[in-house]
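Example record for the data management plan.
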Amino acid sequence: MKKVWLIKPAAMPPKYEARIQTLKRAQYLRSHGFDVTIISGSFLHNTNINLIEDNSSYKFSEYEDGQKFVHIRTSNYSSNGLARIYSILEFYFRLWWHASSFEKPDFISHIAAVPFGNITYYVAKKIKAKFIVDVVDLWPESFVAYGLVSKKNPLLKFAYWAEYWLYKKADLLIFSMEGGKDYVKEKKWDLDQGGKIDINKVFYINNGVDLQDFDFNRINCKISDEDLENDQIFKIIYIGSIRLANNVMQLVEAAEHLKDLTDIKFLIYGDGEDRSTLEQYCEKKQLKNIVFKQKWVELKYVPYILSKSSLNILNYKPSSILRYGGSQSKSFQYMASGKPICANVKMNYCPIEKFSIGIAEEFKDSKGYADAILSFYKMDKDKYNTICANARNASENYDYKLLTARYVELINRI
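Corresponding structural encoding:
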């Protein structure tokens, strides 16, 4: 039986995890006959929980679903400052130091974390395992694209070099966005342009949804909410972070244009540093058609919420990084709900356009956004139902069972 380590410092046990890609990959790898261990930090991000309360350097655990974990001891932190950086460094250095004490894997699959995660290459080399790099975020490119890091920052050159070095060392390089090869070529890191990355080892497996779980939870995990249960209103639902990159203010402004339509309501689920500002704005403007719901929704309740939607919203700040595509986990849940999607950004490799499941457009202003939303409200019933069917059919391309089968096919090549 081949053994795989899935390394992700922020991975959590099933009871706590909201970003489930690693758990789902582990689950379906086990169904393909692999022995899988997830290696993560002991401190659970955005909680006050540390799974190691003594001075142990690591802890073995097996959870109710049969998934094995190794939790590396990491320090608690409360923000994204120096304490978190120290905690991340603890994880990688302790992993390197103790890796030989764990059951040796055939493959190490590592979520790219430049530059800290570059240490993982030396772990793979030390224990003679094949080294797979999963790229779920383009770092530092995304920081530059959203203006969080200046192009003149002297550390930027080092960050790109560290990213290139990590990709170069990988036996297999898997991007979650479809334009991963485009990114490598634009940077001139591929062999044809004098770089050292063989483009033939670069592949794409996006995020996804577990349709079996989604359908079960939709039926069995319901919540009581008078807005969701009101079939007399057109419900526009946003689920996700409420911060700079999500640009939720534009959605609020679009809703403001539609405030006189009493049978349209915007339901916003999520939290972030911009939420309180937006709540205050809505209160000041007396916008009764916008309701801020739970700050955090347990994943099992999401399918039921989305099943009550009339239109699902993907909302982001326009960015050059979207030219490589996207793999937002909520977009696949939106598809699984069988409801249309309206996105306020355009991106390459866009599934909304590919499968005809809604609108993806960078609107000139909030009025244009409101008009797009209104077009679904006014849409002919047959056309609306066709889009709904397209959405559900599209989700079948992103079922974790199928995605993991592709992953198995790739790792068996090396």
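Summary line stored alongside the record: The chain has 15 helices and 14 strands.
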